[in-house]
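Duplicate of #3305? Posting structure anyway:
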């Protein structure tokens, strides 16, 4: 029981500190001090710092998935799935508690990737990106090229990536700390509506005869 409590205490403190400061700027000594544990306990339960960081990603990803679940993608109803995805991500970004820690870890990785980010990205981010690619392709329709789909993905991801980056630096009333759920929901709804309106507009533009890549190159 004591060992389990020590492990949980170390993991909880590591989650909070890594979410607050990122991998680079968080030390094992800081985690030990906050968890009231020694480095030998960290080594016993987790091993090196990168192994502790893997456990933090696994734990925080599970917390976010449980608090803000996204349904399975139905390619016949991509709009419903994309609304749910954007709602999940925006609410998690604006959540200052444990359920928001995962996307804060992701935000720290963008400017300062950890040595194991490639592995973590493949395990925790790539599956969602693949579903997003499928949903965007369905929303853009048969005229969409791979480039259109990739651009659409970048457009959607940038909407909540901006919120995530702004939240890190306490940027503006929109991202102020301590937003309650009833305040965050309208923000999530507007971001989703904006994304879907943009994708509808791109689809209409293509169906109206947008110039192909080959035509643009000839201009």
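Output from current build:
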């Amino acid at each position: 029981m004591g060992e389990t409590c020590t492990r949980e205490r170390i993991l909880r403190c590591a989650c909070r500190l890594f979410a607050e400061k990122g991998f680079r700027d968080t030390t094992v000594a800081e985690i030990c001090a906050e968890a009231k544990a020694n480095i030998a306990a960290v080594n016993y339960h987790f091993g090196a710092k990168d192994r502790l960081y893997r456990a933090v990603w696994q734990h925080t990803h599970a917390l976010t998935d449980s608090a803000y679940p996204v349904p399975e993608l139905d390619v016949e109803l991509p709009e419903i799935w994309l609304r749910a995805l954007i709602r999940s991500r925006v609410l998690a970004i604006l959540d200052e508690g444990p359920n928001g820690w995962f996307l804060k870890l992701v935000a720290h990785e963008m400017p300062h990737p950890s040595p194991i980010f490639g592995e973590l990205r493949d395990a925790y981010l790539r599956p969602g990106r693949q579903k997003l690619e499928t949903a965007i392709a369905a929303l853009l329709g048969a005229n969409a090229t791979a480039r259109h789909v990739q651009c659409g993905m970048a457009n959607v991801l940038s909407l909540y990536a901006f919120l995530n980056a702004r939240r890190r630096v306490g940027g503006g009333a929109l991202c102020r700390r301590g937003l309650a759920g009833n305040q965050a929901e309208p923000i999530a709804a507007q971001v989703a509506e904006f994304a879907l309106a943009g994708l509808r507009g791109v689809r209409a533009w293509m169906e109206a005869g947008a110039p192909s890549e080959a035509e643009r190159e000839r201009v």
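Confirmed duplicate; merging threads. Residues 57-218 form a domain with the Tetracycline Repressor; domain 2 fold (CATH 1.10.357.10). The first helix runs from residue 2 to 21.
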